[in-house]
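Researcher: We're teaching a course module on how sequence relates to structure. For the next exercise, students receive a sequence and then see the predicted structure as tokens, so they can try to spot secondary structure elements on their own. Here is the exercise chain.
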Amino acid sequence: MHSSSTVGPAHTPEALASLLAPALGAERLRLRVPLAPYTTFRIGGPADVLYDATTADELASAVSAARAAGIPVFVLGLGANILVGDGGFRGLVIRNRAARVQIAADGRVRAESGATVADLIRQTVAAGWSGLEHYVGIPSTVGGAVWQNLHFLSPAPERERTMFIAEVVTAVELLLPSGLRTVVDHDEMAFGYDTSRLHGSGEIALSVDFQLSAGDQATLQRILQENLSWRGARHPWLDVHPSAGSIFKKIEGVGAGRLIDQCGLKGFRIGDAQISHMHANIVVNVGHASAADVRALIAHAQRAVHERFGQSLEPEIGFIGDFTAR
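Model: And here is the predicted structure for the students to work with:
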């Protein structure tokens, strides 16, 4: 999601804002805004410049304006699955609040990429459409969902397979690095486990098309309740213990959390960052954790698991911004 930059560290937030103002409007650019409140971890230093994009067109314009000016840019959804550095982000952070949703009579749904999955589930279930209820309780925007191919073990009670949001995606409108907009179909999205073509491509999802199927209201409501209960019993609640979700990528047949647990690290703490007592693959912020605390805890878990089991834990969260600040 980043662009290459011709703007150096000597450029002040005011200087960056002056470059962006002609395209985005000076009154909509906020300077030196702490990013911690906009992440599920509640960790992160300030963005040089912050802009709220409220439509897909504004999102495309903001990304294009930053790239044209050589300013690093990051598109922020709900701020899950990321750790923002204590030094913040040198450049433009765009909060994606483009949230328009259209539901057709045949179960086709088009959602702008800043719509939250929670809101989309509420709207589609209320209209009697099935396909998204499996992902209830997972903090994500629609853009983030296709970025990582959102998934969950569902439905209850069997929970026999992992269900992926790609199964109901038919097309995605993308902003290309060139500034052009294009629509690609499901097969062109290169969906995989925790991945899609958006990784490393410089492309930004602007909107997503889904094809849902007619669902029985009682069944939909049952799945929602069962999935929320199942998650709640296994994952720390974000409003009590902020986190970024699973820290490390899945290890087939072993499980990263299981290895960390077997090292006796549940509850292990550095500063205010702690390995969750509920789920060893989740680090929680139990007070005022810094990004440095989290990085140190990640490194500690990696060393412990490698020394005991010879397994290498690979982070699945994104590390965003400046981690050099002390």
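Model: If you want an answer key for the exercise: Residues 137 and 231 are 8 Å apart (CA to CA). Confidence is low (pLDDT under 50) at residues 1-6.
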